[in-house]
Every structure is written in structure tokens, then in C-alpha cells.
């Protein structure tokens, strides 16, 4: 598994770059990252104008401390124009829709490298987030996740993926592909982003919270949102709860005490503690500490 440094992004808020009110509000949304969208939320006729708005939107959306991601388009000619506009200071990563092969990612990374060099940006500083949105892409997910060192996360676009399969974007049908995407991301040492469902329904926050609880148990570490109301829920559910932090601390204390006493096996709350359980507890405390440090800044 890769040891690359990954950002701590629980929540990523989609914002159409052509909507100045939404761009301004995104800075105070509490999202860990803001995705300035050049793709689905922008009409084809508006895309050229959207690119001209990007630099100012990056500065405005970042004012609250969120990282900035730009979602570009997939057709190559549109994509090239997007890259010319998006590879600028202040952008942390590019989200790449409808990726179907590692070769596509490699070509995009090569262009980004050229633009970084031309513009005096740090080499390799811009991350990539491929989106799996077709059946063909799913079967190549592991190769896509490993395609380039710039890749920091992998996600599956539920609506487009469901369309490519002729199914509804429901949890039952998405369980297998989402789990496959998580496995591919983890094998490559990058973040699996998303949840078990579609991002389109943002009205029922109680149901959304239940979905996130299940999704975190499956291995997701962050998720995108299309409405600011979803951000608080995502941030809460993709962070260890107070009860989880307390239990992890007590488990490690019991384990360390048992090891100090020379015990070969240590029990906690009626169960034996083994190495994976200890490692999971340490991960819980480390993630909680990292989130707390972020929120103090």
C-alpha cells in the first residue's frame, strides 16, 4: 500500500462555478473541500464563460479554509480547455469524470505536469480524483487507482454509473460496485470517497445520516454533497464519535496494561483483543486527533 500523504477530507461540497451566490456561501459551509464544478451543473453553452470565472471563484471559495477541487469535463477537447483554466495556484486537486482506463489518467497527468512547469507551480502538487461512472471503468478500477502518483482518491458517480447499467441509483444495486471501488482505492493507498446511495436526494437528512453510518462501516472516509445542509451530517458521521473515541482509548489502555504485565492474551469487554482490533483503535484515535487539530486552525 502507498504511504503517500493524503488530505483529511470528510466533506466535499459541489458548487457550480457560474453561481456567485453559491460560490460565496461555500466559504462558510464548513466543508473540508469545495468542488468548483465545470461539468454537469454547467450548461454546454456556459462552459467557456465558466472557465473565465474559475480563478476568482477559487480565491473566494477558499477564504474559509476549505481545499479547492475542480471537476473538469470528459470529452478531450473540452477537458483540455478546462485544464488550461484549472491548473492554477490555489487548486488542490482535479476531479476527473467518466474515467475508463489508466491510460486516460496518465495522459491527463502528463498535461498537468506540463502546465505546472509552465506556470511555476510545484511539480506534482495537484492531486487527481478519478470518477468511476461506467461499467467499463469499474472493471478497471484498480488499474485506474494506481495509474499515477498524483491520485489521492477514487469515487464512483452513482447517477452516471446507474445510467450506464440501466438500473436505478439505489443502495441495493450500488452495493457491489461501491464495495469494489473501496477495495480498489484501499489497494492503491488512496481515499475511497462516497456513500452507499445517490448524492441527488438531499431533503431527508435523517435518512442521509443513516446511509452515512452504514457507508463508513463499509470503509468510506469522505463524501461529496450538493447542498450545504448535508455538510454538518457528513462531517459528524465521517468522524469518530465521542463514544468511539472513549472506547478506543479504554481498549488501548487495557491492551497496554496487559502487555506490561506480560500477558499473552488480553480481554476487553468480554472479548479478546488481537492485533487488528488494536490497530483499528489506534486509527480511530489518530483520525480523531487529526480532525480536532484541523478544527483548531
Q: What features would you describe in this structure?
A:
Strand 4 (93-96), helix 4 and strand 5 (127-132) form a beta-alpha-beta unit. With 297 residues, this protein is of the alpha/beta class. The two termini are 30 Å apart. The strands form two sheets. An eight-stranded parallel β-sheet has the order 7-6-5-4-3-2-1-8. The chain has a two-stranded antiparallel ribbon with strand order 9-10. It is globular, with a radius of gyration of 20 Å. It has two domains: 11-237, Phosphoenolpyruvate-binding domains (TIM Barrel, Alpha-Beta Barrel), CATH 3.20.20.60; 242-296. 51% of the residues lie in helices and 14% in strands. The longest helix has 22 residues, at 275-296. Helix 2 (47-61) packs parallel to helix 3 and helix 11 (242-260) crosses helix 12 (275-296). The chain has helices at residues 20-26, 47-61, 76-86, 102-119, 135-138, 141-145, 158-165, 171-188, 205-218, 229-237, 242-260, 275-296, and strands at 11-16, 33-37, 67-71, 93-96, 127-132, 153-156, 191-193, 223-225, 266-268, 271-273.
Amino acid at each position: 500500500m502507498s504511504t503517500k500523504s493524503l488530505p483529511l477530507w470528510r466533506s466535499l461540497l459541489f458548487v457550480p462555478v457560474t453561481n456567485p451566490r453559491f460560490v460565496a456561501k461555500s466559504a462558510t459551509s464548513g466543508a473540508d473541500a469545495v468542488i468548483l464544478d465545470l461539468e454537469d451543473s454547467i450548461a454546454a453553452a456556459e462552459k467557456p464563460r465558466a472557465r473565465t470565472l474559475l480563478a476568482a471563484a477559487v480565491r473566494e471559495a477558499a477564504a474559509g479554509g476549505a481545499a479547492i477541487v475542480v471537476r473538469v469535463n470528459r470529452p478531450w477537447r473540452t477537458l483540455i480547455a478546462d485544464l488550461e483554466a484549472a491548473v492554477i495556484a490555489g487548486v488542490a486537486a482535479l476531479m476527473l469524470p467518466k474515467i475508463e482506463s489508466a491510460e486516460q489518467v496518465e495522459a491527463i497527468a502528463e498535461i498537468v505536469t506540463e502546465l505546472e512547469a509552465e506556470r511555476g507551480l510545484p511539480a506534482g502538487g495537484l492531486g487527481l480524483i478519478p470518477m468511476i461512472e461506467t461499467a467499463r471503468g469499474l472493471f478497471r478500477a484498480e488499474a485506474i487507482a494506481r495509474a499515477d502518483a498524483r491520485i489521492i482518491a477514487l469515487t464512483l458517480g452513482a447517477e452516471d454509473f446507474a445510467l450506464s447499467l440501466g438500473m436505478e441509483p439505489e443502495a441495493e444495486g450500488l452495493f457491489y460496485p461501491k464495495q469494489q471501488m473501496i477495495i480498489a482505492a484501499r489497494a492503491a493507498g488512496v481515499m475511497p470517497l462516497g456513500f452507499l446511495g445517490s448524492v441527488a436526494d438531499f431533503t431527508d437528512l435523517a435518512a442521509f445520516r443513516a446511509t452515512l453510518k452504514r457507508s463508513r462501516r463499509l470503509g468510506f472516509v469522505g463524501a461529496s454533497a450538493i447542498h450545504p445542509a448535508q455538510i454538518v451530517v457528513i462531517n459528524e458521521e465521517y468522524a469518530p464519535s465521542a463514544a468511539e473515541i472513549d472506547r478506543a482509548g479504554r481498549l488501548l489502555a487495557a491492551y497496554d496494561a496487559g502487555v506490561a504485565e506480560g500477558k499473552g492474551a488480553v480481554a476487553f469487554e468480554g472479548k479478546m483483543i488481537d492485533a487488528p482490533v488494536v490497530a483499528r483503535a489506534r486509527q480511530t484515535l489518530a483520525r480523531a486527533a487529526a480532525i480536532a487539530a484541523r478544527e483548531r486552525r
